[in-house]
Design brief:
Layout (H helix, E strand, L loop, with lengths): L4 H11 L10 H7 L1 H7 L17 H24 L1 H8 L4 E3 L13 H6 L4 E3 L1 H12 L16 H19 L4 H12 L8 H15 L7 H9 L2 H6 L11 H6 L6 H10 L9 H10 L3 E3 L12 E3 L9 E3 L2 E3 L4 H12 L2 H15 L6 H13 L4 H10 L2 H4 L8 H12 L7 H10 L16 H4 L2 H18 L5 H8 L6 H8 L4 H9 L2 H4 L2
Antiparallel strand pairs: 1-2, 3-4, 5-6
């Protein structure tokens, strides 16, 4: 079979995370059958799931947080009661409330349980110190510094989850399925910066609500996401009380529309998708009572999704022209099922999917094809991904999109065979480049356009990282051989000449990592 260098580059970079170094044979496989190389990644058993020793489920992590918070509280109280011990206690990392968040974050359980969850403090001092150290030395060994304070359970968990995700991306054969995971995780994003529960749950949320469904049905992923404790906490639905519910009447509080609004605006219908503010309010009423069990476990096992009937707004609700009778939990599930199948959802998802993988302005014919497949297959995401790979437009569009920071750092690690046993360098690089792992600044996730990632300052920071990597590893590799592994005959004469004329291997490696063939997908 004739080899197609340009199609191989598209297979590796547009759909995957780039070629692996060494004897992986990625380039040869992609060049001999580009589309088959990509589609094979979709059919490897359990390819999307991530199950590793030590990664715990959401309820276990919730109980770990509650136990840690109790320890911190006890230490503070002991310090106050014993002034002689106050200085020693002050040396321990202090748990403080996350900034820019409500100080009252009460659940809708019984008063004693609500009180135990009033504030969700986030340990900032040690965590910020660790992030600062990582950001100051991305992708390279840290300079000698004062001994760091021991990591708490939240920090340890976050780093373990990050390491598992990075290792999977770095060793994946093609990486298309992992790219799908990152796409859907960003589409249905939470932010680890919200608080301690969000930070410890960030990886579990992706493992439990996203990964099992990336090759399944959109409606099932939507349900798993919106009922996951991490999403309910991130968008404050545990605070939302039906105004006429028993809890609402007793506590003189009402709706919180955050989750309902983002379901319609960001997760399904999209802006201009045919809904009104009245529809947002109706959906907010429908999903009142969707919460998670808190530390006292009065509604269930702490950290599990529960439906609290006492917080649910009674009565039928009209949403998008359809009346949903009050049937408790199933009222909201029926509403989400219908929204998942709404024509505006199909259009919104198809457009965003094409924009992510192909170009900022994707071909209308490609969007129309993806739209039709999504609609006809009832949101079959494997069919959607397969249609994308089978579409000529996805292979004909030039490689103009800039890799996101995460995609870039993973591509660097794959080419250079840098499989970490500590995530610090990668986390530091992501912080420096403006895409901290699982921590976007808002519910709309990280941007997905060249305007966000191709800015001069961002490219300068990438050059800094490329230079640091080259300084550390350049003596041990031949950049000319790496270019053959990464782009081979698809590389331009200009790129080849630039690397060949470099004054040193370190300079040549840095130039390779900044080349258009490596930066663009």
């Amino acid at each position: 079979m004739a080899r197609d260098p340009q199609a191989a580059l598209i297979a590796l970079n547009r759909f995957g995370f780039g070629a692996r170094g060494g004897a992986s044979g990625d380039w040869a496989g992609a060049a001999s059958d580009p589309r088959g190389f990509v589609k094979a990644d979709l059919h490897r058993p359990n390819n999307a799931r991530l199950e590793m020793p030590g990664l715990q489920p959401t309820p276990a992590l919730a109980q770990a947080v509650f136990a840690y918070q109790a320890e911190v509280k006890a230490a503070r109280e002991a310090a106050k009661a014993n002034p002689a011990a106050e200085m020693a206690a002050a040396e321990k990392p202090a748990a403080v409330e996350a900034p820019d968040k409500p100080s009252e974050s009460k659940s809708v359980e019984a008063r004693s349980e609500a009180k135990s969850m009033d504030s969700q403090p986030m340990e900032k001092s040690a965590e910020k110190s660790a992030e600062k150290t990582e950001a100051n030395a991305p992708m390279q060994a840290n300079e000698a510094a004062a001994p760091a304070k021991p990591l708490n359970v939240i920090q340890k968990t976050f780093r373990a989850e990050a390491l598992a995700r990075l290792q999977r991306a770095l060793i994946a054969d093609c990486g298309f399925t992992e790219r799908l995971v990152t796409f859907w995780s960003n589409h249905f994003c939470i932010s680890a910066a919200k608080g301690e529960l969000a930070r410890i749950w960030a990886g579990a949320f992706e493992r439990e609500a996203i990964r099992p469904h990336v090759l399944g049905r959109f409606s099932e992923m939507l349900m798993a996401v919106e009922q996951h404790p991490a999403m309910l906490f991130f968008l404050d639905n545990q605070q939302s009380l039906g105004p006429d519910s028993r809890a609402g009447q007793n506590r003189k509080r009402g709706l919180n529309e955050n989750l309902a609004r983002e379901i319609m605006e960001l997760h399904t219908l999209g802006v201009g998708g045919g809904y009104t503010q009245e529809d947002v309010t109706s959906l907010a009423r429908i999903i009142t009572g969707w919460t998670f069990a808190g530390r006292q476990g009065q509604l269930g096992t702490p950290g599990t999704f529960v439906f609290n009937a006492n917080a649910h707004q009674p009565g039928p609700q009209v949403l998008l022209g359809k009346t949903y009778e009050d049937s408790g939990l199933s009222q909201g599930e029926a509403a989400l099922a219908d929204i998942a199948r709404h024509p505006s959802t199909a259009k919104f998802i198809a457009t965003k999917f094409a924009r992510h993988f192909v170009s900022d302005e994707p071909p209308p014919a490609l969007i129309a094809r993806l739209h039709e497949v999504f609609r006809k297959t009832d949101g079959d995401l494997l069919a959607l991904a397969t249609t994308l790979v089978d579409s000529d437009e996805a292979w004909q569009a030039p490689l103009t999109k800039i890799r996101s920071p995460y995609e870039y750092l993973v591509a660097v690690g794959r080419l250079l065979g840098q499989i970490p046993d500590d995530p610090s360098r990668y986390l530091g690089g992501l912080n420096l480049l403006g895409q901290p792992l699982w921590a976007p600044s808002g519910p709309n996730g990280f941007p997905d356009t060249n305007a966000a990632w191709a800015a001069p300052e961002g490219m300068k920071l990438r050059l800094d990282i490329a230079a640091q990597v080259a300084s550390r590893l350049g003596d041990n590799v031949d950049p000319r051989n790496l270019l053959e592994l990464a782009a081979a005959d698809a590389s331009s004469q200009e790129t080849r000449h630039t690397i060949e004329r470099a004054e040193s291997r370190q300079q040549a490696l840095a130039l390779l990592l900044m080349s258009p063939e490596f930066q663009r997908r």
